[in-house]
Design a protein that fits this description.
384 residues; mainly alpha; two-stranded antiparallel sheet; 13 helices; 2 strands; 77% helix; elongated
Length: 384
């Protein structure tokens, strides 16, 4: 019967771990859908009850549509900025409709003028804003012919009221926070970097440079996707803290959004990619005197494994990778100190000229420099 563990490098990881994380994500998504649905219903009903008594024929559809747009913004900050853009675009469209109706009436010529002006007059607006200005103006064109001022004031008031209600509901009823998503994305990036470093170290110690070098390079390049996802999540988490009533009520403004951690990991990923590229180039170098010596490879393999452990400890301080009596900071410090000690030894060996394969000195220098920068990023952050 097959062992019910998934092996990551040399460390067995229970297969139930990923399943638990998947179940947790699914339950979180379901809870998020319930919250969004409840907020949408509250915003729609509240807007209808406020606007229906004074809207034309008791049909406040424009106000409800605006409220739904605002309450479903991904953050409170976005709901406010979107409201400003939405209200501005619709008011501009209504004014444009009123002006063209007075000059040309509800004709095809008025529609053409609206389309041209929406494109020419608003070059600094986004394409969506220009489209909203034009569409609002065209829809309001017919109404302005019969009741110019009423057709301008009522939609404007509906838009303002709907935006205000949508923002209020989004800000007061469980306003969205994305700290967990940011946390998960950054930890996933750290796990990928740490695993790749450990795999490269294991491969070098097993004399598998030639068959695995290009695989490592491909994996290092694929880190870009995880970097992009982590950056988006970190930025969204930071934005979700702005004007968030949950932060004010629970003093969560100082809660981490992994900004600093992500910046360090981004720098580390650059060094990892450089290491993988240098190893891949060296593995297929036709000059035999440029190949790395076993003495260097054995010790460099050790530093990559230690660096992988340092990255894991750096981004996952709560993980029980060592003795339960050892704090996360101490585990990170031990990993960095062990790697720095090896780095000093190798630098001294190269300086004294006692390293085998001296023809590969430029490769040694490149690999040592990347390792030095990687450790400097982790060491500087740990010190702070």
């Amino acid at each position: 019967m097959q062992d019910s563990t998934i092996r990551l490098g040399r460390t067995p990881v229970p297969a139930a771990g990923p399943l638990r994380r998947l179940a947790s994500r699914l339950s979180t998504k379901r809870a998020g859908h319930v919250v969004h649905g409840s907020k949408t219903l509250i915003a729609a009903m509240l807007t209808w009850s406020i606007v229906a008594p004074w809207s034309p024929e008791g049909r406040p559809y424009l106000a409800v549509a605006t409220a739904l747009l605002m309450v479903n913004a991904s953050t409170v900050y976005q709901s406010v900025t979107k409201a400003a853009q939405n209200v501005g675009a619709r008011v501009a469209g209504l004014i444009l409709a009123l002006a063209t109706a007075r000059l040309l009436g509800p004709t095809a010529g008025a529609v053409a003028v609206i389309a041209v002006l929406a494109v020419i007059v608003g070059p600094r607006r986004t394409a969506d804003d220009r489209l909203q200005v034009a569409s609002t103006a065209v829809i309001a064109l017919a109404a302005t012919a019969t009741d110019p001022m009423g057709s301008l004031i009522s939609p404007a008031l509906q838009t303002l009221t709907g935006a205000a209600v949508g923002i209020a509901v989004n800000a007061l009823v469980l306003p969205p926070l994305y700290l967990n998503e940011s946390d998960s994305a950054v930890r996933d990036l750290a796990r990928s970097i740490g695993t790749l470093l450990h795999d490269m170290g294991t491969g070098l110690s097993g004399r598998q440079l030639a068959p695995k070098a290009h695989t490592w390079l491909h994996q290092a390049r694929s880190l870009d996707k995880r970097l992009t996802r982590a950056e988006e999540q970190v930025q969204q988490a930071g934005e979700s803290l702005r004007w968030n009533t949950r932060c004010v009520a629970h003093t969560r403004r100082k809660e981490t959004t992994f900004d600093d951690t992500f910046r360090v990991l981004r720098g580390v990923s650059i060094q990892v990619r450089g290491i993988a590229r240098t190893l891949a180039d060296n593995a297929h170098d036709n000059h035999s005197d440029h190949h790395l010596g076993h003495q260097f490879l054995d010790q460099y393999a050790e530093t990559l494994q230690l660096a992988g452990a340092a990255v894991q400890a750096f981004a996952e301080p709560g993980r029980a990778t060592g003795s339960p009596d050892t704090s996360p900071r101490e585990r990170l410090r031990a990993a960095i100190d062990g790697t720095l000690a090896w780095h000093d030894t190798m630098t001294d060996t190269i300086a004294r000229g006692t390293l085998t394969k001296p023809g590969a000195w430029h490769v040694y220098g490149s690999l040592m420099t990347d390792a030095e920068r990687l450790l400097a990023d982790l060491d500087r952050t740990d010190t702070h």
